[in-house]
Amino acid sequence: MASDSPPDSVVAWHTLEAEKALEVLQSDRESGLTTQQVTERLAQYGPNELVESAGRSTLAILWDQFKNIMLLMLMGVAVVSAILDLRSGSFPKDAIAITSIVVLNAILGYVQESRAEKALAALKSLASPRVRAIRDGKIVEVSSKELVPGDVMLLEAGVQVSADGRLIEASNLQVRESALTGEAQPATKHAETHLQEETPLGDRLNLVFQGTEVVQGRATVLVTNTGMKTELGHIATMLQSVEAQETPLQERMTQLGNVLVGGSLVLVALVVIGGVIRTGNFSTFEELLEVSLSMAVAVVPEGLPAVITVTLALGTQRMVRRQALIRKLPAVETLGSVTTICSDKTGTLTQNKMVVQLVDTERHTFRVSGNGYDPVGEFQLEQQAVSPEQYLELQTLLIACILCNDATLQYEKDQWVIFGDPTEGALLTLGAKAGVDKATWARKLPRVSEFPFSSERKRMSVICEASDYRPITATAADPIQYLMFTKGSPELILERCTHMQVGDRLEPLNAEQRAEVLDQNNQMAGRGLRVLGFAYKPLATLPAEGSDAATEKGLIWLGLVGMLDAPRPEAKEAVARCRAAGIRVVMITGDHQLTAQTIAQELGIAQPGDRVVSGQELDRMSLQELEDQVDQVSVYARVSPEHKLQIVQALKRRGRVVAMTGDGVNDAPALKQADIGIAMGITGTDVSKEASDMVLLDDNFATIVAATEEGRTVYTNIRRFIKYILGSNIGEVLTIAAAPLIGLGGVPLSPLQILWMNLVTDGLPALALAVEPPEPNVMNRPPHDPQESIFARGLGSYMIRVGIVFAVLTIALMTWAYGYTHAPGYDRSPDTWKTMVFTTLCLAQMGHAIAIRSNVRLTIELNPFSNPYLLGAVTLTTILQLLLIYVPPLQNFFDTFWLSPLELAICFGFSALMFTWIELEKLFLRWQSARRG
Ligand code: ATP
User: Fold this and answer.
1) Taking every annotated instance into account, which residue ranges of this chain make up the domain Cation-transporting P-type ATPase N-terminal (predicted)?
2) 176, 517, 894, 933: which has the fewest C-beta neighbours closer than 10 Å?
């Protein structure tokens, strides 16, 4: 219906009063839109999405493929080979083949890269923020894509604003708009402001804009524009694109490429000069040049870059299946080298399902029964149920619990669920168990102002109008207009109290009472409970915004509330796995020392007697002092986000590779500084997600460990196929160089055959090796140095050793085959020896692929079906190789000759020696390590 839809014309929303704006958009501040309105508007305005510009253009990705120095060298080889062929009057087959393979390789690289970019983009959209909105009179959580003009959305600190909107209500709202205006300082926003039409964007203080970040406060916002109609949508440059960074490994591969190309050019020069000197003239120059060209092609691992890209992309997919979402590709690799994981406690190591167990006031300690968020349970004193309303200080404390609270408790789909902070949810449940209901009390004592919670302040206060309610301790003469309720870390709240409530009396707090409260706090924390302190204060006037330090003083102490947040059952095992894997787990929490220590001990992160360092101690330490101790401390308590930054810096200066979790707005710097910044998918703020390398979709510590395992597997597999590919390249080069040296006429392998080997017979099995399942010991060994050279830990020596074995086998076969095919009476082409060399090299690589699956276990000890791709790749490649030597058109194209059954059997026999050699190497290594004990 036309009359039901809001105007589609451009409205200057900042000039309208909030009520007027609601009217224009036919919405309601209390109940928001109806489901039907939302459906209609979604159809009319489309989803709230920015049309992303593609990361890199198609042409740019394609062009990048040709920037590879190895491909450039191949093109050089093609040109020289074409000149040689044309001069001798033959068809420039090799040149055409090389060119087509260069082009094909570029296309393959292009397809893989654009797929990887798309996959990353899709993963990124998985992390699209959730927004709290009011619809049909209820608070609901929706994906930001589903917002429509007219929606009433709720903002709080840490949220990234998902659409443009007019403020309906705001409290201490500060928004960082640097993404839009370039202004780094957060802007303070007000709902009631009425502005001129020409007010510039940065001064429209009654509006919020998509893409900006709420730094502090809360607000209720009427969505005015979504998708491309937002201010952000207008600025095309602000569109976020997927970051396509080169991973450290890809960088190292580029360097490797340079070394190989340089090396092969030197080899070419040596062979040509050496040959000319040997013959004393230029008669064999062309043949030498051909040998050199083949060597140049042989040394380049043409298939490697593509295999690496695919491996990393597959790694991210496996990780997302295990609930770890990679936002930056290099993280896949870095994860494999993590030495220290710094984790938050609440929600990551614990379940974040809080249940209040104890309430402690001056006169009594109440036990509270019940499970989860169900408001069913009783208050007990000495195991006897009591009625909470009989205890006056308890009543006031419960009112503080539910009013100094931003969460909501709702009954949905047969269960009680909370929206907001679980700590606050538990307090609502506590109140409800005593019949103290938030809605009723919020009407009696409406909130007029607040000092919001932050991890630095570790407390929050709300100020309520007290016209309908006077605390029991007030006398008729007290000029009470407002009541302030404060909750937070007990030590901090107690410091700010001057009195305490005892029944219906106020008593000045003496030193003894303070010591008693702190002692009680320690006892509760020592049992692993998360403890909050509560206080209140009557006020005659409304305090100014930002006067928190002055106002939150002279408070009246009410009591302590202790809630249980049990450790996640899987976290203990994950910590043990880390220990076995040489990874140290460090707990960094805003919570109390004893709570932190108890939970850390339960999880095996700390041992009894281990030192716990507090935020206060960190404040007194220099970075150098922290650096000296940082390797010994496993628990940090009562820390603020800036301490996290110090800890990461100290760890990094000790050479540790640090993964660090964070969820708040102010955790962003520490997340950026860490080698792997990890944000929480469920409870994390958008700002922290934006700063992270990886997002835990389930907020679970065990997921970090799972991702680390995947990272290690990826890195091991990459090293495995580099060994595999480069070993064979060295074998090829040596074989080709040997032919003229031992006086065999002709080049054993043509450039075309070499390309075939490097791309197909090496490439396919290498791809299959990329999905090799993790070795059982992958989490039972220490992490590797991320700076280590690509040739470290025996990779370089393996390549040379295996390359030589390859060459020795093939040269032996080559010498025999040359003699055999040149013997009198041999009735087929004397060049058949070349096909035997070609085939032996290919088949030997199949044996190599099967044997290299494990460094330590023999092939017969492995389940052949645990990597079916490898079986498939080896079978397919062998068939393709046979087609090449038995199908006439392919024979012509690849210059091969058919082999007799005996010749083929001899090739198989020589190739099998390669497999045997690697298995013998494993046995030797085992024997050696057994001897060393
Ligand atoms: P972690 O850092 O492991 O997530 P945490 O939740 O204890 O643990 P913060 O969120 O920084 O860390 O909280 C610090 C302290 O502030 C808490 O230990 C608690 O005493 C207090 N606190 C937490 N939430 C609130 C809240 N909603 N209102 C008032 N005080 C709070």
Assistant:
1) 12-86
2) 933
Instruction: Identify whether residues 667 and 761 lie together within a single domain.
Output: no
Which pLDDT tens digit goes with each residue over 649-662? Answer: 999 999 899 999 98
Known catalytic residues are 344
- Report the nearest-CA residue for atom 24 of ligand 1: 423
Q: Is the pLDDT of residue 250 over 70?
A: no
- The count of domains in the chain is 4
Does residue 99 belong to any structural domain of this protein? no
Ligand 1 centre distance from Cα of residue 591 (Å): 6
Last residue of a domain, one of 225, 241, 257: 241
- Tell me, what amino acid is at 358? L
| Judgement on whether residues 648 and 628 belong to the same structural domain of the protein | yes
Are 584 and 563 in the same domain?
A: no
The DSSP 8-state label assigned to residue 243 in this structure reads: -
487 CA: nearest ligand 1 atom: 29
Angle formed by the axes of helices 569-580 and 593-603, to 10°?
70
Query: Could you tell me if residue 79 is inside a domain?
Result: no
Is residue 235 predicted with pLDDT exceeding 80? Answer: no
Are both 454 and 589 inside the same structural domain? no
Q: 304-318, pLDDT tens digit by residue?
A: 777 887 788 788 888
pLDDT of the residue at 472: 67
What confidence score (pLDDT) does residue 793 get? 83
Residues 714 and 829 in one domain: yes
- Calculate how far, in angstroms, residue 612's C-alpha sits from the geometric centre of ligand 1: 18
Q: What is the CATH classification number for the domain harbouring 36?
A: 2.70.150.10
Is ligand 1 within 6 A of the CB of residue 821? no
Is ligand 1 within 6 A of the CB of residue 762?
no
Integer Cα distance of 814 and 839 in angstroms: 11
- Closest ligand 1 atom to Cα of 530: 18
Name which of 13-27, 139-153, 465-479, 760-774 the model is least confident about. Answer: 465-479
Report how far ligand 1's centroid is from the alpha carbon of 344 (Å).
11
- Residues 31-79: tens digit of each pLDDT: 999 999 999 999 998 888 876 544 556 777 777 777 777 778 888 888 9
The rounded distance, in Å, linking the Cα atoms of 713 and 315 is: 9
3-class DSSP assignment, residue 52: coil
Tokens describing residue 602: 């339960």
State the pLDDT at residue 124. Answer: 54
Q: Is the pLDDT of residue 248 over 80?
A: no
- 200 vs 675: which has the higher pLDDT: 675
- The boundaries of the domain holding residue 29 are 13-52+121-241
415 and 510 together in one domain: yes
Q: How far apart are CA 695 and CA 740, in angstroms?
A: 58
Do 785 and 798 lie in one domain? The reply is yes
Task: Identify whether 63 is part of a domain.
Answer: no
Q: Which residues of 632-648 are buried (b: 16+ CB within 10 A; e: fewer)?
A: ebbbbbbbbbbbbbbbb
- Cα(511)–Cα(252) distance, integer angstroms: 64
Indicate whether this model's pTM tops 0.85: no
Do the Cβ atoms of 473 and 431 come closer than 8 Å?
Answer: no
